[in-house]
């Protein structure tokens, strides 16, 4: 939930090309909240979180007054090739 949490996923960091100032990450099967860090010095990070249970998670989060910085969207993992922004 921390919008200032640093991106700590070394596999993602390793794949970022030198000089890249913006990356887009698709978190498939994110659950109710993506656990990915949201900040990396000098890089804008855009995260799209998807999960087939997003509707249920959204209901639970709303019921408990939780507003995540990145809301998980509904999508079956097999359909991710259709996601565009």
Task: Characterize this entry briefly.
This protein is of the alpha/beta class. Helices cover 19% and strands 20% of the residues.
Helices and strands in order:
Layout (H helix, E strand, L loop, with lengths): L9 H6 L6 E7 L15 E8 L2 H10 L9 E2 L11
Parallel strand pairs: 1-2, 2-3
Structural features, described:
It is globular and about 40 Å long. The protein is of the alpha/beta class and 85 residues long. 19% of the residues lie in helices and 20% in strands.
How is the largest sheet built, in terms of strand order? 1-2-3
Number of helical elements: 2
What percent of residues adopt helix (DSSP H or I)? 10-25%
Structural class: alpha/beta
Task: Give the SSE string.
Answer: HEEHE
Q: What's the Cα radius of gyration? A: 14 Å
The backbone outline, from C-alpha atoms, is globular
Count of strand segments = 3
CA distance, first residue to last residue? 22 Å
**Low-pLDDT sequence parts:** none
Average pLDDT confidence is 91
Beta-strand content estimate: 15-25%
Largest sheet: 3 strands, parallel
């Amino acid at each position: 939930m921390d919008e200032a949490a640093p991106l700590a996923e070394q596999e993602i960091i390793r794949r970022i090309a030198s000089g890249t100032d913006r990356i887009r990450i698709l978190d498939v099967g994110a659950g109710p909240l993506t656990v990915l860090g949201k900040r990396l010095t000098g890089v804008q990070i855009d995260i799209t979180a998807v999960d087939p249970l997003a509707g249920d998670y959204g209901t639970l989060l709303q019921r408990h007054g939780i507003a995540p910085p990145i809301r998980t969207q509904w999508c079956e993992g097999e359909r991710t090739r259709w996601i565009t922004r």
